[in-house]
Each structure stands twice: as C-alpha cells, then as structure tokens.
Amino acid sequence: MDLRNTWDQWPDVNGRFGEFGGRYVAETLMPLILELEAEYRKAKEDPAFKAQMDDLWTHYVGRPSPLYFAERMTEHFGGAKIYFKRDELNHTGAHKINNCLGQVLLAMRMGKTRIIAETGAGQHGVATATICARFGLKCVVFMGETDVERQKPNVFRMRLLGAEIVPVSSGTGTLKDAMNEALRDWVTNVEDTFYCIGTAAGPHPYPELVRDFQSVIGKEARAQILEREGRLPDAVMACIGGGSNAIGLFHPFLEDESVRLLGVEAAGHGIETGEHAAALNGGKPGILHGNKTYLLQTDDGQIVDAHSISAGLDYPGIGPEHAFLRDTGRAEYLSCTDAEALEAFQLCTRLEGIIPALEPSHAIARVGEAAKELGPDGLIILNMCGRGDKDVFSVAKALGVDM
Amino acid sequence: MPTSRISDAFARAKGENRAALVTYIMAGDPDLETSFEAMKALRDNGADIIELGAPFTDPMADGASIQKAGLRSLANGTTLRDTLQLAARFREEDQTTPLILMGYANPVFRMGYGEFASAAAEAGIDGTILVDLPPEEDGELREEYAKHDLSVIRLATPTTHEARMAKVAEGASGFLYFVAVTGVTGAGSADPKAISGNIEMAKRVSGLPVCVGFGVKTGVQAAEMAKIADGVVVGSAFVDHAEKAHESGNFSSAPRGMGALAQELSLAIRTIAKP
User: In this protein, which residues make up the domain named Tryptophan synthase beta chain-like PALP (chain A) (predicted)?
Assistant: First the structure.
C-alpha cells in the first residue's frame, strides 16, 4: 500500500481516523454538523474563501511566522540543531487564532450570527473573541468557574473584546464542563449559533477542520526548513492537550516517513500518581464530546479530571487523529511533568530570550533528549505555539515568588 | 420476548384510548434502595414504561436537574452494573413493565457492546436510549442487540427533517422518543402546536409509537402532549423529588412524591380520550 495516499485519506466518509473520531452527538446536533461538513467542502473549493483567509493571515494574524534557529538551546544540549516555529508571535499570542479565523469565516458563510466557544486558560476564548470583534459578531465564551478565577487577565481581555463570559459551575467546573455547557447551549440555540471548537477534537468534521486550519503551521515550517537547510527535518515536536498545534505541525509531514513526529503530553504530578492530562499515555479508548478517542476514565467509563500546571493541556481527551497516529505508530507520544515543564520554561527564557507558554514548555522539556539522540547532524523543529506572558503569575506562584 | 413488553404497553394504552406514561428516574439517586422503591411506586401509580437513567460524569444533553442527579448517584458509587442489577431486582417481581436504560455511550462502550447487551437482556431491560449514539454510530451495538431482542430507541428532534427522520427510524424499534424542544432536559416547555406536524411526520416515517419528552413537568402539560403523541415522557420533575429527598435526608419521601406525581400525570393523560 502506498502510505502517501493512506495518510492523506483520513478522515474517511464517516469522519473516522481508523477506529477513532466519528459523530457521537445528540440527534439535535446531527443536522447541524452534517450541514457544517457540506459547507466546509464548498468553502475548500472556493478560491474567494482561500483568498480571504490568506489576506487575514498575512495582514491581521501576521503569518508566516518565522522559523528561528535556537542557537543557544542547540549549544546547551549539544545535539541536533533546534529550530523554533514561532507561532507565539501571532496576533493574540498563540496558534489558536489560525483556527478561529477559519471557523468564524465559515460561520459567516453559513449565515450564523452568534459564536460560542469553550476555553480553559482563555487563549482560545481570547482568539475567538478577537475574531468576533473584528467581524462584529456576538461572542459567548464558556469557562470553568475555577478557570475564571485563575485566569483573570484573559477574562478581562475577552470582556474588553466584547465577549460575554459564562462561568460554568456544573460538573467539576473545568474545561471539559465548559465544553459540555457549550454543547448544551448549541442544542438550545441551533438556529443562529456556531460552535467554534478550539482543539482538534469533537464530532466530525471538527477534527478535520481544525487540523486543516492549523496545518498552515506545518506547511510553512516545511517550506522554511527546506529553504534554510535544504532538507527535511529529522523530527518535529509539539505539546499535546487536545492536540491542535501538534496536528497542525505534524500533518504536512505525515507523508515524509523519514520525519519523526513527537508529541509531548502533560504528565502533571506524574502519570503514576493518576494526576495528569496524558490521555494517550495513561488513558483508554472511549467516547466523549462527539468523538471516539483515548480518554482518562475509570473502568466504569466515567471521565476522570485531568491535571496539569498548564491550563491549555488540562483536558481528559485527545484529538482522534492523534489516537490514530499513536496506534499506527506514525507518531510517538512522550510526556513531561509539571516540574520538568517549569524547568524548561526558565531554561528557554534565559537561553533564548523567549518566554514560552507553559504548554510548549512541555515540548521544550523533551527536546534535549531528542536532540542528543539525533546527534549534531540532526534537525528538529519545535512548535513554539504560545507565549508565556499569560503564565507569569502561575509560574511565580509555583516558584514561590510573591509578586 | 423483551420487545413485546414495549409493544404490549403501547397496545394496553391504546386499548384504553390514551397515551402511555413514560417516567424517568436516575438509578442510585438518592440511593439504589430508594430507586427500587421508586420504581414500584411509579408502576403502582400509572407509569406504563420506566426509564432508568444510568449516571455519567458528562451528560451533555441534560439540564441542571438530571446533571445533579447523575453526580449524586456517582457520588454513591453507582456503576453501570449496579444499574443493571437494580433493573434485575425489579424484573424479579414485575414481568410486564418495560424497562428502558437511558444514558450515554461511554460506560456501555467501556463494558463492551456484546457484554452489555447480554447483561442488559439478562437483567430484564427491554431497550436503551443512548443519547450520543446516533444512527451513524450504533451499528455495532445494534448487531449485539439483535441477538437479544433488545430495542434501540432513538431520539428525533425539531431539527430532524423528513429525510433525516428516515435515517433515525432505520433499525430503531420499540418507540421513537421525540425531543420536544431544541435544548436540554428539564429546560423550557414545548408548544404542542409547534411540534404536532413533526410528530405526525415522525409517526408516518417511522411506523413506531412516538413519545414526547423534554420540558414536560405537570399534568396539564402532559395532557396537552397526550393529544398528539402515543406517549408522554416526564423526567426532571421526578428527579426533583430525589433531590429533595437527598437534601432532607428523608429518602422515603422520594418514592412517595414520585408516586403522587405519576398519579397526577396518569390521571391527566386519561382525561384525553384518543380517537
């Protein structure tokens, strides 16, 4: 079988990546997601849609993001050359806006006037609120009650941008509950509302949509490394929560079998403690939020809360394409604890003058080992998917610094 | 024959020129013993079919009442096997009242569709409603159910247009559950006039009895729905009695309150003679 064709064919017509993915939603939502899929197929073929995306990517988001040779990190580890894909330089400070822009443009094509979103740390919420402000759309963001308290600056940013924040106290008041509440809102307001999902999960076609919009990361990185080094990298690395930045980086390299794909999950206090967010390394297949994928759950199929120092990785599931890439062995999934991420956060800040978000700090924590393994002739691209300004308060607290 | 328990229940109601009363409670809320007493009270006060909620941590189609009921039940440690055991206990002393397990896909998927189907049939369950398992995704489950004559009961909603209704009806059996409002359980209330056309279409396309639920709480509302549907489903209003019992610590108040509500609903439905 020709793997080039094999990797590109997913998801299949049923929205599946192998056995993962699918459309596990209440019947009320079925007509909506089928309509969304049909509209997306049309938009993909429409040059005007692509032209509008490209224009906003260039002039509003600031794409392409640079590919930067992290010289001092490379020296520090003494192995492969390490490049950073600088998606933290995007407008709003993370990769999230790539996807929000695409989804909101789709929503407008469909005549929807009200955009809802879930958010954990607030990055997806801020990106969604930003695009909604740009186009004058009503925006409602669901956020776990505890996160509203912990992420006050982002809550204020969203409000400044005109979004309504709905604190979610149901369930355990975390990101998964915010997603449940967004789904409940959507089944209630089917006529005018578009659900802008922030990660590469949810019912088909969301994992495909989000992947396609985020693939701009990998497409740019692939072209940039070919120009800089004249060859493909040996490995590409990204952190994984739901997995949107990672799938965006990985997907354009799937056909390049020589390129290793390394995802890094959040191990929290350690996978053995049970307090982590590593669905692939510590979970089992199950069904939640519209898709079949790896989930943190009990033997009775009840969902277990995730834990990570990084609110952006604090989710008990994972995008279905990652579940598929793991089971097929095409991608490898490592993990990194809270403590290791904190170390990496400080290391990168001091060596490169770049304050990374806690999310990519997880990938940074594993990049040294990969670099040493590949040796000085190797090439690695790491996705710097967000900047750390939002995290300085929680890092200070973790380091025992009183601000 | 489990499917015949469901069709017999609708036949009995039809024989009395009325709609069937379908009642929902959450298994294990406020505890399993009380649920067992509640099931008997519902049956004794006019419930034709009992839906037994299986708790799930992330009930995305449920409103506040049933969400909280599920969390109370989970806090008691209720598992899917406990819910099946509760059904089996009721079935020992009642061989006619249909029992429908209602919940979400993951606990059933985790147990394994084959193992669940045989355990459910063994426990005397007649069918299931798994909210997040639409026709596109329940093929494997249906194969297992066919071995045990279990019914796949599907949901249709105001967004289900005629072409979609054919898909919803494909492979469905027992009855069709028409969700009266676009929304979650317990929220808002439906205007029977607004949905009567949808219900007619659902009956015609599916050829199954059509029950209406979501937002039906009182006798007056139930009677209105009984005019246009083959059955009326009430859930959150029953679950609220379990909440009160949980809060007061007086668990025996739950079967009493639920029985009284079932009687009110049953009498209201009986005032509506069907042509």
Answer: 62-386
